[in-house]
Amino acid sequence: MLDNQNAIVRRWLDAVEESAGLMAGMPDSPMFFKTRAAVAIHETLKLAQTMRGFVTVTLDAGRGKTVACREYQRTRPHVHMVTLHPKVKTVHGAMNQLARRLSVRVFNQAELVEMIGERLSRGGEQALLIIDEAQHADGESVNQFRYFSDVFNIGLALVGNSEIRKKMAQAGAHAASRDQIVSRLDKNLKRDPGRAEDVRDFIAAWGIDDADCIRFLTALGMKGGALRQIDRTIKIAHLAMQGSGEPLQRKHLEAAWRNRDVEDI
């Protein structure tokens, strides 16, 4: 019996050691730097926080929306951020996730919305609520988020993909209700600022100066997924060539991209 347990422990330790070895060979992504997209996102968030208004950020996937929002939250006071997912798309789910993020506890569920609002506006400071992956929220949830901005005088930013606009349209059953929401929108950041330049700077931040690698990665960065395509492909290439002693070459990147096999998804 003891031998069986020892064998299980050995296999577990071997797996941990192997995983640690793989992670040691995994390069870190570049530290946050202000891409043109990040600057535009920060300006939009600052507008919402300063005016205590309502904005949306719907740039393409892979343009660093989440990273930029986290950096904004890290460097400024009174900024709250919650990330939604498909399981919390209803008002009930969204409010409970927001309550957990804000450490709000109530015994009466009917008091939850008001308690969240009071927590967000505590101290009368200029507060900002960022809802990341906001496309998962249903129309009623979008309307509830707007309520916090209207009643508790805080800034609100819905961040995600273009589905957010559809959800805003669904937030009211009648045109007047939709107009009530859209008319409060101070800005919708959807135009992609300087994508080609950001791709170039991101590749440089990875420390890659080989011309063939740069050309290949630039082409990836102009696909859907943008900077994320570059990041994932470089990391997978490094994992595949671990221990080979070779410098990163275009052939490694091409092999990593082929192995990802995501082109036709």
Entry keywords:
265 residues, alpha/beta, 5-stranded parallel β-sheet, elongated, 5 strands
Summarize the SSE layout with pairings:
Blueprint: H1 2-24, H2 36-51, E1 54-57, H3 65-75, E2 79-83, H4 91-102, H5 112-120, E3 128-132, H6 139-152, E4 155-159, H7 163-170, H8 175-182, E5 185-189, H9 195-205, H10 211-221, H11 226-240, H12 250-260
Helix pairs in contact: 2-3, 4-5, 4-6, 6-7, 9-10, 10-11, 11-12
Report on the structure:
Helix content is 56%, strand content 9%. By secondary structure, the chain is α/β, with parallel strands linked by helices. The chain has a five-stranded parallel β-sheet with strand order 2-3-4-1-5, with helices on both faces. Helix 4 (91-102) packs across helix 5 (112-120), helix 6 (139-152) packs across helix 7 and helix 11 crosses helix 12. It is elongated and about 60 Å long.
Give a quick precis of the structure:
The protein is 56% helix and 9% strand. It is α/β, with parallel strands linked by helices.
- The strands making up the biggest β-sheet line up spatially as 2-3-4-1-5
Q: Stretches where pLDDT falls below 50 for ≥5 residues?
A: none
Largest sheet: 5 strands, parallel
- Strand segment count: 5
Shape: elongated
Mean pLDDT: 84
Q: Find the structural class using helix and strand composition.
A: alpha/beta
Instruction: Give, in order, the helices and strands.
Output: HHEHEHHEHEHHEHHHH
Percent range of helical residues? 55-70%
Q: Please indicate the percent range of residues in DSSP E strands (runs of 2 or more).
A: 5-15%
> C-alpha Rg, in Å?
22 Å
> How far from one another are the termini?
48 Å
Count of helix runs: 12
